[in-house]
Each structure stands twice: as structure tokens, then as C-alpha cells.
């Protein structure tokens, strides 16, 4: 190994997928020397072509703990501007509101009226009309006026990305803006679905959200499809948002309105990931304690509303220290689970992979202490043609910091989404090359006798039934 190899060590990049990856039809391409002009490409080959062969990260952040810690120390000032709208939940089972931030062109909302509501901006592009019962939105974020929001619907064909953030984050998170900013500059439309209570959004019912909380993203996608009927829609989720997005795509199955999805640092098997955190001092005293504290702060921010739930014991929640304790005292009882581990098993997205029917690209670091390596779906990825997982030997949780400050994971994500939007015929049906079924899963014929039940594995059959709203915004 040469001197420069020591200065810029190269992490291992690996891919995990079925031998019969789904086949995508390309759009007709102009003759261009050196460009693959074949009419079809497999999802696996598309993901590989979108991913840099080298994963050269900052040599001073030489393990997952340092990479993850640097996320807290580094504050990337990426000036993404948002306009926010509050939606009322469309299902009586999940009452309350949630807030969605739409990426817009830069504006000046520094001028405010006497009651704190922003007035006409200098460039005349946007106004801000903050609801009187709202908490103050995040920086560079203000509310749409009624007139602005009613003028949004369009027949344009711009690709649009729906984003789900991590555990207690929001549209302000740097890891998220590292993806949103370049895509928006390249002509994409983007919106971020803030989980209830996150990003200074207002909680209007006695529930927050959980790892199976797919109803708000479902309502958002339906609203977008209705108001922007010609836009191809894509999704991306980070950490807990990746788990939720995978569950959503699995629940939608062949009816999913997204053309493709990306998930980054997905914890996949929540029980395994939780136990892995509890097993080590760093996992419990650093990561789990930090995430537990974040959720407790979120709880306290909305405690006056959350305490209205008959199964919430405020003092027991306040006495928790670690994330699994918080889930034991709040999430499990509110949603009807007997224990936090029952909740984790039921809300995990690892089996949802088998119900996914759109291209899904997962990116994971094997030294991620939060989304544990032992929880990754290595085997599951080989059993579905619709998903590909890229793993790196190094990168931490939503980090992948390179020397100089960039984040490696933004490259495969942005490349993949752009390739899907510009190179793939999204109206063409996906082609799945059927594999020969294993003999033990082959249904018995009338002349055969096979002991045991007929195979009937339903990946989205949950232990706790949560109705999926079928209405539209």
C-alpha cells in the first residue's frame, strides 16, 4: 500500500441483490460514443452504475463512531428554503394534523408584522402567513398563504421527491439538505413530510408517530398525485424515515404511486438494532441515551396535548433514560403493544421488502452502530428482484464524511434518482425474470401429497391491525 493509500483509505463497496434483478426499459438515447445504448438495464446494474467504485472517506474519522459523532459537531449551512402547509389527517383512526415543507426558491422573510407574521418579501415572490396557533417553523421556513398554496397545482412533468427524515429530525437536517439542495438545483421539486411534532410542527391530537406511521406520507403522495398528475414521484427515507418508507412501499405493493425509492441507514430489524445498542457501553450510554433524550424533548414540547391520551403516564415517560425505555413507556402503550419489543418486531421493515414492487435502492454502512450490521437484510435482498442494497465497510450513521467535508452517500443517491428520472422509461412495465421455485415451496398437485400447510406467506400481515386510509386529500 502506497503513501497516498494510507492518507486516503478506501472503504469496501459491496452490492447485495437477487440474481434475477428487475429489468428496466431505457428511454431512447441519442447516439453518444461510450454510452451504453442497450434498450434494457437491470436494477442491479443501474445501482452499480450510479455508485462510485471508491469510498474514500476522511482518514481522521476512521470508524463509524467518529463518523457519526462528526455529524453532531459539523453544521453544514446548506441554504434550502421551504414553504410549509398544514394538512388535516384524512382518517378518523389517525386524527390530527401534520406539516409538509415544500422546497422553494430563496426568499426574504425577515420582515414581520407586529404580531410576528411575516409580510411581503423584498423580491415579491412569497409571503408568509403563519397560523396563529403554530409554533415558529425552522430557519428559512415559513407558511404558505392560502393564495400561494391554492396556486401550487400544475401539469408540469418535473420529477418530484418525497422525503422522510430520521427519528426526531425534520426538514432542517443537514444530511437531508445534502440531497435536497443539488436535486432542486437540477430541476427537481421536493417536499419533506415532517413527522408529527417534529421540526417545530404543531401536534393537534394525543399521538405522535411510530416506525409504522405510514398514513401521513400516504396522504401526502395522494395529494401530490391529484394536484400534480404528470409528475413522476420518487421517495427517500433516512434512518427511521427509511423504515417508514419501506413499510409504506410494502403496504402499497403494486399500487404504489412512487416510481422508485431510496433508503439510507435503515435500521430494518428494530428489535435486533435495539438489542445491539443495549449490548455495549457506547451503544447504551451514548447512542440510546442521546436518542432517548431527543424523544423526551419532543415529548415535553407537546406534553400538554400528549397527556390527554388515557394510556400516557407523563411521570413514567419523564423518568426514562434510554430510547427503548421511552418506547416502553410511551410508544408501546399508546399504540396498543404489550412491550417495546413487540412494537419493534411488528414495526420492522425487513419483511416488508418481500411486498415491495417498485425499484428500491438501500445504502448502509456496516460500521453503523444505530442501524446495526446484524440487522441488515443480506439474505432478504437475494430473495426479491425489486431491491438492491449497497453496503460500505465504513461510514457510520447517515455520515460518510469525505476529506474536505462532502458526504459520499449523496453521490449514489443523486446519481440513482437522476438516472431513474432521465434514463428510464417510467411508463414501461417492470420486467421480472421468474426463477424456478424451490421444490419445498412448490404447491402440491392433485397427484402429490405434501405434509404441512400450503405456502401463504404475507409479509405485510401485522400482529397489530392499523387501518390504511383509502380516502384522498
TrEMBL record:
Biological-process GO terms, alphabetical: medium-chain fatty acid biosynthetic process; medium-chain fatty acid catabolic process; proteolysis
Pfam family, one: Abhydrolase_1
Catalytic activity from the UniProt record: an aliphatic alcohol + acetyl-CoA = an acetyl ester + CoA
Molecular-function annotations in GO: acetylesterase activity; alcohol O-acetyltransferase activity; cysteine-type endopeptidase activity; monoacylglycerol lipase activity
Polar residues bias: start-end ranges: 110-127
Top-level taxon in the UniProt lineage: Eukaryota
Enzyme's top EC category: transferase
Domain Caspase family p10: 388-466
Comp. bias regions, Basic and acidic residues: 448-459
Function (record text): Displays enzymatic activity both for medium-chain fatty acid (MCFA) ethyl ester synthesis and hydrolysis (esterase activity). MCFA are toxic for yeast and this enzyme could thus be involved in their detoxification by esterification.
Name listed for the protein in its UniProt record: alcohol O-acetyltransferase
Organism: Arthroderma gypseum (strain ATCC MYA-4604 / CBS 118893) (Microsporum gypseum)
